[in-house]
């Protein structure tokens, strides 16, 4: 569809972007075949870019100041009424309402918006909780030198210790891997309730799938030799095959 949309995303030296949150919106734009371009914004510049545009912060920092994050979009399809939005789920809700999908292609099919919000908030939140325990250094090393500095400062402020002292090691690390595997086993149980496809809702992809894709892609990019091989070895290789189902929607304009 002829649209004039800008997606604000975080640059990466890797072949594909690595932010799990911005992937949710990029996949939605590609899936819906909306015209857009990417504006690459380093994490250290997010506030400086978003604040003057009136793009809303998505949270509050510990010091009480507004916290700006990506993704964000600028939609100038109607030049008399440009739209500036932040946060992945509100953005995709907006895209679904403004550019209605054909029947059978909805990203929130059958009044599942609330259930998908629960999935993203709690199930994906549980998966993301393993990042500090297992993958914080891999993610750090996957970033450009400038991004590494900003990431290191934010992580050390959050955890109150050097970044290389955050991950679990030895037996504790193996216990974290076992706990992560149990979460994926739970996901396999839920996904297997639909027999007509590999997505959460069977053959029809949804916003919740975009969230899980973002997590898996981040891990694949950051830790292709340790964590990602473990994940795709679980459940008979299900999660590697799952990622293959998104191949038609991962285009990135450079």
Automatic annotation (TrEMBL):
UniProt domain GST N-terminal: residue ranges: 9-103
Top-level taxon of origin: Eukaryota
Signal sequence residues: none
Gene3D superfamilies assigned to the protein according to its UniProt record, in alphabetical order: 1.20.1050.10, Glutaredoxin (3.40.30.10)
Matching PROSITE patterns: GST_NTER
Family according to the record: Belongs to the GST superfamily.
Protein name: GST N-terminal domain-containing protein
Species annotation: Galerina marginata (strain CBS 339.88)
Native organism taxonomy: Eukaryota, Fungi, Dikarya, Basidiomycota, Agaricomycotina
């Amino acid at each position: 569809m002829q649209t004039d949309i800008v997606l604000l995303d975080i640059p990466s030296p890797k072949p594909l972007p690595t932010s799990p949150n911005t992937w949710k919106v990029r996949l939605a734009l590609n899936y819906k075949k909306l015209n857009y371009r990417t504006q690459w914004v380093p994490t250290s510049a997010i506030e400086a870019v978003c604040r003057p545009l009136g793009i809303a912060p998505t949270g509050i920092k510990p010091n009480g100041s507004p916290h700006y994050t990506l993704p964000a979009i600028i939609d100038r399809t109607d030049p008399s009424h440009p739209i500036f939005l932040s946060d992945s789920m509100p953005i995709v809700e907006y895209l679904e309402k403004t550019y209605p999908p054909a029947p059978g292609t909805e990203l929130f099919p059958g009044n599942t918006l609330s259930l998908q919000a629960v999935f993203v908030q709690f199930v994906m939140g549980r998966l993301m909780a393993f990042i500090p325990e297992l993958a914080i250094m891999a993610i750090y090393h996957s970033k450009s030198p400038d991004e590494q500095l900003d990431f290191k400062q934010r992580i050390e402020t959050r955890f109150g210790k050097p970044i290389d002292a955050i991950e679990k090691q030895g037996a504790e690390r193996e216990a974290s891997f076992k706990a992560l595997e149990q979460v994926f086993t739970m996901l396999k149980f839920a996904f297997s309730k639909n027999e007509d496809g590999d997505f959460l809702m069977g053959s029809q992809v949804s916003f919740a799938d975009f969230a899980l894709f973002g997590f898996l892609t981040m891990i694949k990019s950051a830790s292709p030799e340790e964590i990602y091989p473990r994940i795709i070895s679980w459940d008979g290789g299900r999660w590697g095959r799952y990622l293959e189902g998104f191949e038609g929607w991962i285009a990135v304009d450079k």
